[in-house]
Specification:
Length: about 425
Amino acid sequence: MQRLRESDLAGNLLWLAVSLVLATGVWYIAVTSADPVGSRRFLRIPVQFVPSDATVMTNNPTNQVAVIIHGPQSTVSSRRAEDIVVRAELGALGAGIHNVPLDVRVAVPESGSRRRLVWHSEPSQITVELEPVESVPKEIAIAVVAEPPLGFRFDEPASDVNEVIVSGAASVVSEIVDIRGDLNLSSSRSPVEINLRLYAVDADGERVDAVKLQPQNATVSVNITRRDDIRQIAVRPNILVGTQPFGYTLSAISTEPPSLFVSGAPEQLANISDTLFTVPISLEDRKSSFAIAVPVQLPGDNLFVMGGDNNVTVSIELLPINTSRQIDSIVVGAIGFDETHSVAIVPQRVSAIVNGPVAQVDRLSADDIQVLVDLNGLAAGVYDLQPDIAINQGELNEDNVSLLPAIVNVEIISPDTTPAAEDADSENETPASGS
């Protein structure tokens, strides 16, 4: 009886185990049918390097990897690149070359499917080269890369920082020979205080960026004052006004450079005027704008222009003076008509209002202006036409001329209309009776 009872118990346990396996299988099939397993690849996920205080990485390992996620399709499809973090822990590593496994973490929503996501990265590890960190003090040197403008001097720059701590890989720090800050005073005419960014250079003068500087900036003060042996003086062109040809006017004048730096004894510079004149510039025979290089006259033999060149370029704009003039009794002619026809034009003479440079307009006469009506293609009849205009002198054209009147009346008379027929018509008319 004991054996029979044990046999029944074992059979029941077996059937229970089989039932659980079958139930689990049915449940899995039902779940995966509703939400099948899927995969998704995320490219260019950045690697976050967790550094060590004692070492520094000197090579350039891969800093982006691919991450592949497997799991329920609904959960996988809802993941974003922002949900993935890839880390490389360097804190416990010493100097040398190491293969560092990548730690991948994916944020999973608390709600939703209870089935787990599985992920991995490609590659799964990276190779890093670590060197010991070295920190050494270095003095800074301020380099004036651009001096103040001419006429100003500067004192030795003063910095609030005399040295900085240079930190980095021992092999790199050993190459640093100088810490510099570049000072540009090209636009400074008074004392300045400038915050400079410092940088490291090697023995070849090349900039080294693979180190850290503490502090990274220095505040530099520079005293800038005006020199008493150099003076900046404005230049004025000496134009002989009135020498330009008749009909032209002086419109604009410019000088390049507008001022010169003159060097000499301080007491002599203090006594000269604030304007230098060029040699006289004549406008005779000039009928257009021009530029000319002329010397500047210095008021003393002991004065000279900085740079040695006391020439300036003077640009002068000359413009013609415009005027308006009416010219009367200009004959109106005709072209393009059949010579067997006769033409009557009313009025036979017109006036012209001419606008333009006075030197050209004043020389015009009625003979210099041609006014013509073009009758090409016109049959016998009466027409109101606008004449064409041509000017036979100077640079004037029809745009400079307005006719009075602007429209003329033209009658083209056919040869079929004979004078005898016209006389017969007039004889048939009854004359008006007198009183």
